[in-house]
Amino acid sequence: MKNEKITFVGIDSWNRPIFRSIDFPRNFFGATDILFSFEADEAEVLSKISVKDLTYFGNKFGCEPMGTAAAGLVIIKTKG
Fold it and tell me: Is residue 43 part of a domain?
């Protein structure tokens, strides 16, 4: 199985951390059980979650409220 590289893009209206695929920009991933304030930044989010916490959300920001199983994800940090 090939790994899918993802990067943090923000917090959605349900306070979920959202990640986007680097190679397939229409693929979005996120966490449904670990929520953050709207002001949370990448460092705060990555200190509290890992790829094991993420599910596939669909092909637009803010879609699929519960997510579906995802595997083979690798988080790429945008900052140091």
Answer: yes
Supply the DSSP string of 2-64, one letter for each residue.
Answer: --EEEEEEEE-TTS-EEEEESSSTT-EEE-SSS---TT--HHHHHHH--GGG-EEEESSTT--
Which tens digits make up the pLDDT trace of 4-48? 899 999 999 899 999 999 989 888 999 999 999 999 999 999 999
Answer yes or no: is 14 within a domain: yes
Contacts of residue 54, defined as CB under 8 A and 6 or more positions apart, other chains included, come to 6, 19, 29, 30, 31, 67, 70, 73
The residue written with tokens 């900052």 in the block is 79
**Residue 58 belongs to domain spanning:** 4-75
Instruction: Give the total number of structural domains in the chain.
Output: 1
